[in-house]
Design brief:
- There is one protein chain.
- With about 140 residues, this protein is mostly helical.
- It contains four helices and no strands.
- It has a domain of about 45 residues.
- It starts with a helix and ends in a 19-residue tail after the last helix.
C-alpha cells in the first residue's frame, strides 16, 4: 500500500467523520429547538436563524469532506488529465510505430485538403419563364 495514498485517505476519512458528527448534532439540536418552538412561539425566529446559519457551516463541512456536488477536487482532476494525456501520447506513439505494410495513411501522409475539396458545381440550366408563369 502506498503510504502517500494512505495518508490522503486517512485525512479524507477524518473529514467525513467530522461532518457526520456535525450532522448528527445539527439534527438533534434542530429537533429540540423545533419542539421548543411549539411551546414558546417566540423561539420560532431563533430556531429559523440557528437552522440557517448552522446549516451554512454544515454545508461547508460537507464540501470539505465530500467535495462540491458535481465537482471534483483539483488534485483528482489534474491526475485524471495527466493520465489522459499519457494515454493519448502512448496511442499516438503506437500509431506512428506500427508495421510499414499498413493500409491506412499516417497523419503526415494524409492531406485532408485533398479529400475535402469539392468538385466544381455542375451548371444548372436556366429555364426560361414566361411572365404568366410568375405570381
Amino acid at each position: 500500500m502506498n503510504p502517500e495514498y494512505y495518508d490522503k485517505a486517512k485525512k479524507k476519512v477524518k473529514k467525513k467523520k467530522k461532518f457526520n458528527s456535525h450532522l448528527y448534532s445539527y439534527l438533534t439540536t434542530m429537533a429540540v429547538l423545533f419542539a421548543m418552538s411549539f411551546w414558546n412561539p417566540g423561539l420560532r425566529r431563533v430556531w429559523i436563524m440557528v437552522a440557517f446559519f448552522w446549516g451554512i457551516g454544515l454545508f461547508t463541512d460537507y464540501v470539505k469532506a465530500y467535495g462540491f456536488p458535481g465537482m471534483e477536487e483539483e488534485d483528482e482532476w489534474e491526475q485524471k488529465e495527466i493520465e489522459k494525456e499519457v494515454r493519448r501520447m502512448e496511442a499516438k506513439d503506437r500509431w506512428q510505430n506500427r508495421p510499414p505494410n499498413r493500409s491506412k495513411l499516417s497523419d503526415d501522409e494524409l492531406d485532408m485538403d485533398d479529400y475535402l475539396d469539392l468538385e466544381k458545381p455542375r451548371p444548372v440550366p436556366k429555364k426560361k419563364y414566361r411572365d404568366e408563369d410568375l405570381v
